C-alpha cells in the first residue's frame, strides 16, 4: 500500500546514509549507486516540473514506494530543523557537487515562483546567460505573485525560513566547502545573474538571498579575523619563548595556521566584494522599493556587525542617500538601521562626517508624511542628542519640542521623551535643593521648567496634548499634585521668587490636564481614534490615581477656589476637577465638612460671576455631586436648592422691576447687565438641572413674545432668554416622554409650535447673534422632535410630530445661503500688527460660527428632517468653499449616500443641472455654450470632485453612478425638437459635465449607458458641426476602453476587434459580454430594469 509523503523525511534503518540527498528520502532497497539515485531524482523532478506548488510526490514502482521532497518544499514547510536540512545537503554536495548544486539552483529558481526547472543537461552545457534566458521564458509574466510578496502567516514564515537556510548554509560550510572555489563562485554567479533579470521575482528573491549571503559571510569574516589575531598573538608568544632555538614544531604549526587564516580571509574578502559590487551597487537603487529596503537593511546590519570594515563613509553614504527615497519603507529602514549605530557610543565618534552631512535631513524627517517614519526619526534624534555632543542646535531642539502638540500620538510620545530628557529632566546633575530644605525641590524645578516651556510655546489651548505626550516619561512628577498645589497656595516660594499670574494660570491648566489624564486613562480628544481598552494593571493604577486625586483635592480645592474666586479663567479650570472624584471617599472618610466648604465656595463663585465657562463648570460640579445613589446626595441637593432659590429670587426681582416700567424697556446699562447675569446663571443651571418647578418657562417666554412684538430688548437679555426657554421645553419633553398623557401632550404640542414660530421670527432679527442663536436652536429642536421615541405611543408621536413645512425648509436654506456662503466685501485698510492679529482672530471666530451653522443644517439633511434635494444648494459650494467647509459637505454627501444611494445621486445631478441652467441663462443664446468660460470650467471641476467621492469600489457605487448618467442624458436631450433626434438639443453640452463620471462606470454599465444614449440619437449621427462635439466626447468616454479590451479578447479568439464608431460592431461586443461579466449578471439585470424605468 502506498504511503503518504511526510514533511520531515524519517530515515529508515534499511536506508543507507548516502541515500538521503537534498532533503529527499528515497525508500528503495534496490538503489545502491549514485547513478540510480540520480535517475530517480530526475524522474521526480520531471513529474514536478509543471507544478511549482506541489508539495508531495508519491509513486509506486515495482511494488515499492518512492517518496521525494524538494529542497524548496522542505525549507518552505519549515517542519524540519534547518541544521538538519543543511547537513543533508552538505553531505550530498560532498558526494556529488554537481547534483547538489543543481538542487540548490532549482531551490532559488522555485523560491522566485518560477515554474521552470534547471536540468542537469542545461546546467552542464549552457552558459549562465542562456540558463537565465530559459528560466525567464518559462516564467509566467502575467502572474505578478511570487512567494516573497505573498501574504499570510505561511509565506511570512517561508521568508524567515529562506533567510535562515542561507545563514545556516554558510555557517555549516565555513570550515570545509566554503573555500573550494566552486560552491560560492557558482552561487554568487547565479544570484548576480538573477539580480540583473528584468523579471521582478528573480531580482527580488536573488537580491534578498545575496544580501543574506553577504551578511552570513561578514559573520564568517569577523570570526576569521578574531581567530587570525589570536593565532598571531600565540605565534608571537611562542616565538619569544623559544628564542635561541633553531626550529620548533609548535611555531611552524602556528605559522601555518596564521597563513591559512590569511588565505581564508582573502577569499572571504573577495566573496564580499563580488556580492557587494555585483548585487548591492546595482540593486540599492532598484525601481522596486522592497529591493531597495532589503539592501539598506542589510548594509546597516553589516555596519553594526563588523564596524571595523564597514563603518566608514564609503558605506554610510548609501544610507544617507536613501534617506531621501520616495518610498516610506526605504526611509524607515534607514532610520531603524541608524538607530542601531547611534545607540552605541563607541561607534558615534566615527560618524562625524555622516552626521554633519545628513543631520539637517534627519531633523526634517519628523515632518514626514508617513507616521512611522516620523516616529523613528524622532527616536533617532533622541539617540543622537544623547550620544553626540552639541550635534543639535538650540533652533533644532526648539523645532523638535513642538512635536509634543501633534495629533499623532506615537510621534508626540517620542517628542515627549525628547523634551523630557533634554529640557525637564537633568539626570546625573546634582539636585539643587531650595533654601530651607523643602521636600519638593526636584519636582518644583521640573514644574517651573515645564511651565516656562508651555508659556513660551504660545499654544496655551493645547496643554492636554502636552501632558499626554509627557505622560509615559514624566508620570511621576506630573502626578505630584501635592507639590503643584503647594506652589499655588503659598504667596511666595521659599526661595523668595513669586509665581506670576501667567505662571499660576499655566500651572492650574497643567493640574487639570494631569488630573484628567490620570482619571480617564486615555489620550485627549483628537489624539487617537478611540478610547483604548485598559488592562487589569492599568485599571488598578487608574483607580489608585482617582483615589489619590480625591483624597488630596477634597481638602485643597476649597482653599484654591477661595484664593482665586475672582479670577474667572482659574476658577473655571479648578471647578472641573470634582468630576474626576471618587465620591465614596466623602462618606467613607467622614469628610462631609470639606464637602460643605466646597459647596459654599461654589455658591459664592456662581453669585459673583457671569462668565459662561465659570457658570457651566459650576453647574457641572453640582450635577456630578448630585448623584442619587451616593450618600452625599441629600446634602448636595439641599445646597443646590438653596442656590437656585437665590438665583430665581434675584431674577424675579429684576423681572418685576422691568415689567413695572411704563414703556417696558430698561435703558439703564447696569440693570441690563444684572438681568443678563441672572438669566445666564439660570440658563447654565437649567442645562443640567430640571428647574421646571420654579416656573421659569413662562417668565422667559414673556420676554421673547415682548421682543417679537416690540423689538426693543437688548441682545444681552434675548440670548439667555432664548436659551432658558429652549431648556425648559426640553425638560418638559423629557417628562412627557416618560409618562405621556393626552392633556399634557396637547399643551406641550401647542407650546412647541409657539416656540418654533418665535424662532422663525427671530431668523430675521436685526441682531446677527440673535439670528444665529435662533437658527441653531431651531435646527436642534427639529432634530430632537423628528426622532422622539415616546415609548412606542403612536398617539403621543402624532401629537408631537413636528416636521418642517416647505416654507420653513426654504427659510432655513435661505438662511444658510445668506449667512454662511455669502461673501462679505472686505475693505482695504491700513492696520497695525496688533490690529491685524485682532482682525484675524475675529475672522477665525466668524468662520467657526459659520461652520457650526452649516453643520447644524447638514444634520437635518442627513437625518431626513428636511428634503435631501435641499443639499443641492450646499453641494454647489463644495469646490469654491472647500478650505472652509469642504469636510462638512463631504461628510454630508457620504452620509446621504449611505442612507439612499439613488436619491443622493439625484441630488448631485440636480446640483449640476441647476448650475448648468444658470450658466446657460447667462450666455448669449445665439452663440451657444462657451466651453472655455470660467463658470463652465468650474462646473466640470465640481463634477470631477463629485466623481472622486465615489472612491475606487465601482461595484459599491454602480447604481449611483448609473443613475447620474441616466438623469444626465435625459436632461441633455430635454427640449429637443423632433422625434428622430436630429435637431440640436439645447442642453447637449451637459454631456461634457457627466462625462466626468464615466470612469466610475463598470464596463457592462458603460455598454448599458451607451444603449440608453442611443434611444435619443438617430443613425447615422448628425455630427456635422462643432455643436455636436459634446455628444462625440461623451460617447468616447463611454467607449474609452473598448479598443483595448477588444484587442485582448480578439487575440485569444474570444472577441474580434471592433471599431468604436459603428453601432453594429458595438452590438457584437454586447453579445459577448457574458464571457467576462458572468459574475455580475444578476445585479446587472437589475440595473437594466431600473434604468429602463
Could you explain the architecture of this structure?
- This protein is an all-alpha fold and 1093 residues long.
- The chain has a domain at 393-427 and 439-531.
- The protein contains 48 helices and two strands.
- A hairpin with a 2-residue loop joins strand 1 and strand 2 (64-68).
- Helix 37 packs parallel to helix 39 (882-899) and helix 42 runs parallel beside helix 44 (1003-1014).
- The model is unreliable at 1-68, 428-437 and 1043-1083 (pLDDT under 50).
Summarize, please:
With 1093 residues, the chain is an all-alpha fold. It contains 48 helices and two strands.
How would you summarize the topology of this molecule?
Elements: H1 34-48, E1 57-61, E2 64-68, H2 71-77, H3 82-95, H4 97-111, H5 120-125, H6 128-138, H7 153-173, H8 183-195, H9 200-241, H10 249-283, H11 289-305, H12 307-310, H13 313-322, H14 328-342, H15 345-348, H16 352-364, H17 371-387, H18 394-401, H19 409-424, H20 441-457, H21 463-478, H22 481-489, H23 501-520, H24 536-563, H25 568-574, H26 584-588, H27 592-608, H28 612-625, H29 633-660, H30 669-688, H31 696-710, H32 715-738, H33 742-762, H34 768-786, H35 794-800, H36 806-819, H37 833-862, H38 871-875, H39 882-899, H40 901-922, H41 934-948, H42 958-972, H43 990-994, H44 1003-1014, H45 1029-1038, H46 1042-1051, H47 1063-1071, H48 1081-1092
Antiparallel strand pairs: 1-2
Helix pairs in contact: 3-4, 3-7, 4-8, 7-9, 8-9, 8-10, 9-10, 9-11, 11-13, 11-14, 13-16, 14-17, 17-19, 19-21, 20-21, 20-23, 21-23, 22-23, 22-24, 23-24, 23-25, 24-27, 25-28, 27-28, 27-29, 28-30, 29-30, 30-32, 31-32, 31-33, 32-33, 32-34, 33-34, 33-35, 34-37, 36-37, 37-39, 39-40, 40-41, 40-42, ...
Amino acid at each position: 500500500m502506498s504511503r503518504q509523503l511526510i514533511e520531515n523525511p524519517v530515515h529508515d534503518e534499511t536506508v543507507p546514509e548516502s541515500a538521503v540527498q537534498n532533503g529527499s528520502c528515497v525508500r528503495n532497497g534496490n538503489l545502491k549507486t549514485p547513478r540510480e539515485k540520480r535517475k530517480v531524482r530526475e524522474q521526480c523532478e520531471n513529474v514536478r516540473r509543471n507544478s511549482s506548488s506541489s508539495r508531495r510526490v508519491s509513486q509506486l514502482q515495482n511494488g515499492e514506494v518512492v517518496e521525494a521532497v524538494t529542497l524548496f518544499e522542505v525549507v518552505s514547510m519549515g517542519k524540519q530543523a534547518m541544521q538538519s536540512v543543511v547537513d543533508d545537503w552538505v553531505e550530498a554536495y560532498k558526494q556529488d557537487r554537481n547534483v547538489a548544486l543543481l538542487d540548490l539552483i532549482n531551490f532559488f529558481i522555485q523560491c522566485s515562483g518560477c515554474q521552470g526547472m534547471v536540468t542537469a543537461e542545461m546546467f552542464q552545457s549552457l552558459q549562465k546567460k542562456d540558463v537565465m534566458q530559459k528560466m525567464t521564458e518559462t516564467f509566467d509574466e502575467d502572474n505578478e505573485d511570487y512567494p516573497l510578496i505573498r501574504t499570510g502567516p505561511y509565506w511570512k514564515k517561508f521568508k524567515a525560513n529562506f533567510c535562515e537556510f542561507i545563514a545556516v548554509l554558510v555557517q555549516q560550510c565555513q570550515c570545509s566547502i566554503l573555500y573550494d572555489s566552486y560552491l560560492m563562485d557558482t552561487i554568487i554567479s547565479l544570484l548576480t545573474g538573477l539580480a540583473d533579470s528584468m523579471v521582478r521575482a528573480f531580482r527580488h528573491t536573488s537580491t534578498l538571498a545575496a544580501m543574506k549571503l553577504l551578511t552570513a559571510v561578514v559573520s564568517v569574516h569577523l570570526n576569521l579575523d578574531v581567530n587570525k589575531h589570536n593565532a598571531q598573538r600565540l605565534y608571537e608568544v611562542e616565538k619569544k619563548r623559544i628564542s635561541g632555538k633553531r626550529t620548533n614544531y609548535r611555531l611552524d604549526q602556528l605559522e601555518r595556521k596564521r597563513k591559512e587564516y590569511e588565505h581564508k580571509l582573502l577569499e572571504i574578502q573577495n566573496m564580499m566584494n563580488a556580492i557587494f559590487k555585483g548585487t548591492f551597487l546595482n540593486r540599492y537603487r532598484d525601481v522596486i522599493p522592497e529591493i531597495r529596503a532589503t539592501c539598506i537593511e542589510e548594509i546597516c546590519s553589516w555596519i553594526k556587525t563588523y564596524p571595523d570594515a564597514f563603518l566608514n563613509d564609503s558605506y554610510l553614504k548609501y544610507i544617507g542617500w536613501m534617506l531621501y527615497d520616495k518610498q516610506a519603507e526605504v526611509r524607515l529602514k534607514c532610520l531603524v538601521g541608524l538607530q542601531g549605530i547611534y545607540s552605541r557610543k563607541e561607534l558615534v565618534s566615527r560618524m562625524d562626517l555622516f552626521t554633519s552631512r545628513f543631520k539637517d535631513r534627519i531633523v526634517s524627517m519628523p515632518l514626514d508624511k508617513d507616521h512611522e517614519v516620523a516616529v523613528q526619526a524622532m527616536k533617532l534624534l533622541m539617540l543622537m542628542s544623547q550620544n553626540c555632543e552639541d550635534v543639535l542646535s538650540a533652533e533644532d531642539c526648539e523645532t523638535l519640542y513642538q512635536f509634543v502638540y501633534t495629533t499623532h500620538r506615537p510621534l508626540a510620545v517620542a517628542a515627549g521623551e525628547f523634551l523630557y530628557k533634554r529640557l525637564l529632566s537633568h539626570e546625573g546633575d546634582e539636585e539643587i535643593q531650595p533654601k530651607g530644605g523643602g521636600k519638593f525641590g526636584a519636582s518644583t524645578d521640573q514644574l517651573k521648567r515645564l511651565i516656562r516651556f508651555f508659556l513660551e510655546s504660545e499654544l496655551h489651548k493645547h496643554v492636554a496634548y502636552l501632558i499626554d505626550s509627557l505622560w509615559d516619561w514624566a508620570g511621576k512628577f506630573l502626578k505630584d499634585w501635592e507639590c503643584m498645589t503647594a506652589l499655588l497656595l503659598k504667596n511666595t516660594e521659599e526661595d523668595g521668587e513669586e509665581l506670576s499670574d501667567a505662571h499660576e494660570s499655566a500651572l492650574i491648566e497643567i493640574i487639570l490636564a494631569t488630573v484628567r489624564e490620570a482619571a480617564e486613562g486615555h489620550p485627549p480628544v483628537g489624539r487617537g481614534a478611540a478610547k483604548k481598552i485598559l488592562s487589569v494593571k492599568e485599571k488598578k493604577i487608574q483607580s489608585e490615581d482617582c483615589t489619590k486625586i480625591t483624597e488630596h483635592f477634597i481638602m485643597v480645592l476649597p482653599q484654591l477656589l477661595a484664593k482665586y474666586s475672582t479670577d474667572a479663567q482659574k476658577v473655571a479650570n479648578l471647578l472641573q476637577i470634582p468630576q474626576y472624584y471618587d465620591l465614596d471617599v466623602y462618606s467613607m472618610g467622614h469628610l462631609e465638612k470639606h464637602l460643605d466648604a466646597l459647596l459654599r465656595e461654589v455658591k459664592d463663585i456662581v453669585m459673583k460671576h457671569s462668565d459662561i465657562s465659570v457658570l457651566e463648570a459650576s453647574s457641572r460640579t453640582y450635577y456630578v455631586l448630585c448623584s442619587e445613589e451616593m450618600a452625599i446626595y441629600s446634602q448636595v441637593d439641599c445646597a443646590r436648592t438653596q442656590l437656585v432659590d437665590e438665583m430665581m429670587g434675584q431674577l424675579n426681582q429684576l423681572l418685576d422691576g422691568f415689567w413695572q416700567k411704563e414703556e417696558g424697556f430698561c435703558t439703564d446699562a447696569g440693570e441690563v447687565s444684572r438681568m443678563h447675569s441672572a438669566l445666564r446663571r439660570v440658563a447654565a443651571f437649567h442645562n443640567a438641572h430640571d428647574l421646571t418647578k420654579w416656573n421659569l418657562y413662562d417668565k422667559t417666554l414673556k420676554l421673547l413674545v415682548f421682543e417679537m412684538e416690540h423689538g426693543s430688548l437688548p441682545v444681552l437679555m434675548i440670548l439667555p432668554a432664548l436659551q432658558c426657554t429652549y431648556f425648559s421645553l426640553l425638560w418638559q419633553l423629557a417628562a412627557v416622554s416618560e409618562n405621556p398623557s393626552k392633556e399634557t401632550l396637547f399643551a406641550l404640542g401647542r407650546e412647541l409650535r409657539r416656540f418654533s414660530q418665535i424662532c422663525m421670527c427671530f431668523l430675521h432679527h436685526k441682531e446677527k447673534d440673535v439670528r444665529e442663536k435662533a437658527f441653531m436652536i431651531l435646527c436642534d429642536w427639529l432634530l430632537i422632535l423628528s426622532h422622539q421615541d415616546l415609548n412606542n405611543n403612536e398617539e403621543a408621536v402624532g401629537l408631537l410630530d413636528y416636521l418642517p413645512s416647505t416654507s420653513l425648509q426654504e427659510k432655513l436654506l435661505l438662511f444658510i445661503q445668506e449667512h454662511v456662503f455669502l461673501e462679505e466685501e472686505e475693505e482695504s485698510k491700513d492696520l497695525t500688527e496688533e490690529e491685524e492679529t485682532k482682525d484675524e482672530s475675529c475672522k477665525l471666530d466668524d468662520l467657526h460660527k459659520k461652520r457650526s451653522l452649516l453643520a447644524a443644517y447638514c444634520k437635518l439633511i442627513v437625518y431626513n428632517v428636511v428634503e435631501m434635494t435641499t443639499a443641492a444648494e450646499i453641494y454647489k459650494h463644495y469646490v469654491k468653499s472647500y478650505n472652509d467647509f469642504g469636510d462638512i459637505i463631504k461628510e454630508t454627501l457620504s452620509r446621504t449616500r449611505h442612507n439612499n444611494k439613488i436619491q443622493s445621486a439625484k441630488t448631485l445631478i440636480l446640483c449640476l443641472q441647476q448650475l448648468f441652467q444658470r450658466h446657460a441663462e447667462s450666455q448669449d443664446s445665439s452663440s451657444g455654450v462657451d466651453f472655455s468660460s470660467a463658470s463652465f470650467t468650474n462646473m466640470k471641476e465640481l463634477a470631477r470632485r463629485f466623481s472622486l467621492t465615489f472612491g475606487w469600489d465601482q461595484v459599491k457605487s454602480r447604481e449611483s453612478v448609473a443613475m447620474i448618467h441616466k438623469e444626465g442624458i435625459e436632461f441633455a436631450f430635454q427640449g429637443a425638437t423632433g422625434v428622430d433626434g436630429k435637431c440640436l438639443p439645447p442642453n447637449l453640452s451637459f454631456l461634457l459635465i457627466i462625462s466626468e463620471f464615466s470612469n466610475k462606470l463598470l464596463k457592462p454599465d458603460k455598454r448599458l449607458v451607451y444603449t440608453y444614449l442611443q434611444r435619443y440619437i438617430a443613425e447615422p449621427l448628425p455630427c456635422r458641426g462643432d455643436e455636436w462635439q459634446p455628444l462625440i466626447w461623451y460617447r468616447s468616454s463611454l467607449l474609452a476602453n473598448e479598443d483595448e479590451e477588444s484587442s485582448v479578447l480578439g487575440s485569444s479568439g474570444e472577441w474580434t476587434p471592433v471599431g468604436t464608431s459603428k453601432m453594429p460592431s458595438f452590438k457584437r461586443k454586447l453579445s459577448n459580454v457574458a464571457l467576462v461579466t458572468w459574475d455580475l449578471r444578476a445585479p446587472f439585470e437589475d440595473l437594466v430594469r431600473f434604468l429602463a424605468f
